[in-house]
Design a protein that fits this description.
The chain is mainly alpha-helical. It is 74% helix and 0% strand. It has one domain (4-67). The protein has helices at residues 4-21, 26-35, 38-44, 46-49, 54-67.
């Protein structure tokens, strides 16, 4: 089982990578990802996601949010 600390640190790093990729602040990235449910996905699927590259996961989160109505 994974610790909440590991999951939290991963989600914080993923938000930072997303923000950097899309030239937004980390607060904006968090709000966007949270609004479309991507934070919950990252929490629920941490076991798989943390084994992938941040670049791949940023793209996956962007695609997920777009399917849920997001528009970057």
């Amino acid at each position: 089982m994974f610790s909440i600390k590991d999951i939290s640190e991963y989600i914080v790093a993923l938000i930072a990578a997303f923000a950097s990729h899309y030239s937004m602040t980390e607060v904006e990235a968090y709000r966007y990802l949270n609004r479309y449910g991507a934070i919950k996905v990252a929490h629920d699927f941490y076991d798989v996601m943390h084994t992938q590259s941040f670049d791949d996961m940023v793209q996956s989160m962007a695609s997920y949010c777009q399917r849920k109505g997001g528009n970057l």
